[in-house]
Amino acid sequence: MGAHSRKCDWCGSGTPIVRDMEPVNSAYQYWCEDCARALIIKGDPIETYRELDGEPIYGRLLEAHCTLKRFYSFATA
């Protein structure tokens, strides 16, 4: 099953834009834009991630909403 046919692991309805490559809970790896934004605003952003759409959507969310800049890393294949 490809990421394009998945749904967000948190809300169950959104299309995932990002995958957490080191999830605390393996049941929550794929996040839609709204849920990913909520994580960032809450102060619990995904630190090691892979953009799923080829667009840096999650990277832009980090820039726009993350007040504490951490070291984030893109996962490589």
Characterise this structure.
The chain is 25% helix and 18% strand. The chain has one domain (14-71). The mean pLDDT is 86. With 77 residues, the protein is of the alpha+beta class. It is globular and about 30 Å long. β3, α2 (57-65) and β4 form a beta-alpha-beta unit. It has a four-stranded mixed beta sheet.
Order of helices and strands: EEHEHE
Distance between the termini: 17 Å
Helix-and-strand structural type? alpha+beta
Radius of gyration, rounded?
11 Å
Average pLDDT rating: 86
Low-confidence stretches: none
Number of separate helices = 2
Mind describing the biggest β-sheet?
4 strands, mixed
Q: Tally the beta strands.
A: 4
Strand order of the largest sheet: 2-1-3-4
Overall geometric form: globular
What is this structure, in a nutshell?
With 77 residues, the protein is of the alpha+beta class. It has helices spanning 33-42, 57-65; strands at 16-20, 30-32, 48-51, 73-74.
